[in-house]
Amino acid sequence: ASSSMETEHASTDQRPLAAAESNRRSCCFRLCCWFLPYLVWNRVTKIVLALFVVLLVVCTADVVYETVTPGPSDHGPPSPDGFAGYYQAEALKYLQYARAAFCNEARILKWDCGSICEAVPVTAGAVRFLGPGSAYSVQGFIAALPNNDSAAPVRCVISFRGSVPLGNWLADSKAFSIDWPYQGSWCSLCKVHHGFAGAYEELKGPMLSALKELNCSEAAATGHSLGAALATLAALELRAVWGMKVEPVFLFGSPRVGNFAFAQTFAEHGHKQGASPPAWRVVHYHDIIARLAPVWLDYEHVSREVYYYTRAEDVYRVCQDEDEDDDCSAGIHKRACVNADHVKYLNLTLMSGRMEASCIGTVTPSSEMHV
């Protein structure tokens, strides 16, 4: 009996310690997030930079190496193509639209970006470039999709680029959450990543204008990394506020965007439109970005995850529809996630510097045209 009481007492004593540790990490992380923009824009001394590095190491060491409950080593049997409505060919199509957002403005407007643009057609002359944003340098595009039936509603695709210039990384670094949306109460108790919210706000106005100009009745949304976060915010607001049908939504290497209330609201408005699931969130093997922002800052992923559990991406598992599935990416030790899996999806690169010249190269003056 004495031993039992001692065990219970020890367990009880550990609870405040665990809470204190969680609070310490949370406070440290917030300090880092506030500190980084100051370093970037003011170019402070080497001493301050060294202090920042020390602070960052202290805050993240136990996060990077923390243990989470691992799922089965084989993650269960692979899902057959078409299971729960997920088709890899469709995912590959929207991955190409996500990759196209990395191309330069002239290439996107001409839809002349080499093999990427050849793989996924758009309606000629019906492409609008978004950005770059003034503070966070985010960019993307909206394009009408081809349709042989001229009387049919115009379907468009919205695509946002992942992180490339310094401004994008500034947005990524502001990982503390804020109330969202800025106006209105249609997302009750929702909090989202500060940087993502600010970056989305830069493109929201041009996005709405382009959708109206192209007469888009429905839209698909896609993006990689930071672009996936922006696509998440865009899909929810278009569904909830503007009543636009947004389906499908393909998110590649997406970080967590908001809290539990946000994830639930995202699911609710997706289901109201008959979108099943509200989004396909594709994760490549040990992609570390898909495991950020951390859950101990009250972040929650939107569903539904498709987890490619080999680096070769030859097999995948369609994960549970609700919450984060420990048999998928959530069940991997974070210490295994230091790699380049984030910049390669479905065996295609999403590293800007490795995109083909026809995507990121300039258009010669003789071939320029405006659409």
Annotation keywords:
371 residues; alpha/beta; two-stranded antiparallel ribbon; 10 helices; disordered C terminus
Largest sheet: 8 strands, mixed
Summed over residues and divided by their number, the pLDDT gives a mean of 83
Beta strand %: 5-15%
Q: What is the helix content?
A: 25-40%
Q: Which class of secondary structure composition applies to the elements?
A: alpha/beta
Q: What's the total helix number?
A: 10
Please state the overall shape, judged from the principal axes of the Cα atoms: globular
- Which ranges are low-confidence, i.e. pLDDT below 50, for 5 or more consecutive residues? 1-22, 53-73, 365-371
Order of helices and strands: HHHHHEEEHEEHEHEHEEEEEH
Radius of gyration: 22 Å
Calculate the terminal CA-CA distance, rounded to whole Å: 81 Å
Strands of the biggest beta sheet: in what spatial order?
1-2-3-6-7-8-9-10
Number of strands: 12
